[in-house]
Design a protein that fits this description.
By secondary structure, this protein is of the alpha+beta class. Helix content is 33%, strand content 32%. It has three helices and seven strands. Strands 1-2-3-4-5-6-7 form a seven-stranded mixed beta sheet. A hairpin with a 2-residue loop joins strand 6 and strand 7. The radius of gyration is 16 Å and the shape is elongated. The relative contact order is 0.15.
Amino acid sequence: MEVAEKIIDQLELTGHDLEGEISFPALGESVLFTIGLSGSGEIEQSHKDSINWLYNNIELEFPKIEEAIFQYYQRVLPDYHLGLGEYADELMPKLSAPNEVWNYVTEPGVFMLPEDEGGELHLEYECTFDVEHGLRVVIKNGKILRVGLE
């Protein structure tokens, strides 16, 4: 059985999505994993391909993901500091290295869109500096497209 099938077997139908908490390399022991189903309610081959790609490449891609989040963090820090006021240095301090983002960006989740909605893979995170929106890393065809608000 391929990796995708093993992961899909751990998920349950919730509305129009398959969803469940799973263990995933580099992301953690309790990762919310969601597959958005198209109108047909079927799991698409692209979902399986994306799951297999992510599972087989997450260790290699993780430094790129970390760097992309760090660059986003650095870029938005001045604007967030204005909004966070007296809590800015606590919730979003200046960082000197990419691996420091994990002190403020936590609880990764994976969301896969169906092909008719773009077929993107989203790594979604909670973050201390924007508890309402969090942030996401959007990946398609093995490339990071953008990092931003959920």
